[in-house]
UniProtKB/TrEMBL annotation:
Keyword Transferase attributed: yes
UniProt keyword Cytoplasm, yes or no: no
Database matches in Pfam families: GST_C, GST_N_2
Protein name listed in UniProt: Glutathione S-transferase
PROSITE patterns: GST_CTER (PS50405), GST_NTER (PS50404)
Top-level taxon of origin: Bacteria
Organism: Azoarcus indigens
A GO MF term: transferase activity
Positions of the GST C-terminal domain: 87-201
Keyword annotations from UniProtKB, A to Z: Transferase
Annotated GST N-terminal domain residues: 1-81
Database matches in InterPro entries: Glutathione-S-Trfase_C-like, Glutathione-S-Trfase_C_sf, Glutathione_S-Trfase, Glutathione_S-Trfase_N, GST_C, Thioredoxin-like_sf
Length: 201
């Protein structure tokens, strides 16, 4: 397998899951401005969507969209217990969290990364504050999103939360979020993923 990535982008989530599951994949860095891989390939020809993550499977098929990729990887190694079994209520809870993170948190960061008006920034920040308050309330009584066990949703939340420092969004009003970030960040697989993407000193 090959995981196409850009350091610190939402591909960090499947990168963490690969390592948590003990799966092997070649990492291929993508310059999202030039749309070229580190090998000089046209990334748009590989993934017409033009963004990461993208996972090239051994049979030549390409899988895109982070929530789909992390579930696929988790299901390759069910013994790692990174996702509940299909057909269970717990799996639906996982879908619920992955969708919430993707639509309510991930996309709310987009205006903060782009040259938007101050009005747009204020709207995005207000939305993030509401959404993170909801997550923090949940995490006050749970170590992880699904309870006491780490899942692929936690890898996604950790990734999205890490963007706060890049755009000046302060997470300190929510001690439960800071504790979660510290707890997840201390995991060996997370440390390895950060190091491999050049995100640690």
């Amino acid at each position: 397998m090959k995981l196409y990535y850009s350091p610190g982008a939402c591909n960090l989530s499947p990168h963490i899951v690969l390592l948590e599951a003990g799966l092997d994949a070649e990492l291929v860095r993508v310059d999202l401005k030039t749309k070229l891989t580190e090998h000089g390939e046209d990334f748009a020809a590989i993934n017409p969507k033009g963004y990461v993550p993208a996972l090239l499977l051994d049979d030549g098929e390409l899988l895109t969209e982070g929530p789909a990729i992390v579930q696929y990887l988790a299901d390759l190694r069910p013994d790692a217990q990174l996702a509940p079994p299909w057909g269970t209520r717990e799996r639906s809870r996982l879908h619920e969290w992955l969708n919430f993170i993707g639509t309510e948190l991930h996309k709310s960061f987009s205006p903060l990364f782009r040259a938007q008006s101050e009005e747009w920034r204020e709207v995005a920040i207000a939305n993030l504050k509401r959404r993170f308050t909801y997550v923090a309330t949940h995490l006050q009584s749970h170590d992880y999103l699904l309870g006491e066990c780490f899942s692929v949703a936690d890898a996604y939340l950790f990734t999205v939360m890490s963007w706060g420092a890049k755009v000046g969004f302060d997470l300190s009003p929510w001690p439960a979020l800071l504790a979660f970030q510290q707890r997840v960040g201390a995991r060996p697989a997370v440390q390895a993923a950060l190091q491999q993407e050049g995100l640690t000193a």
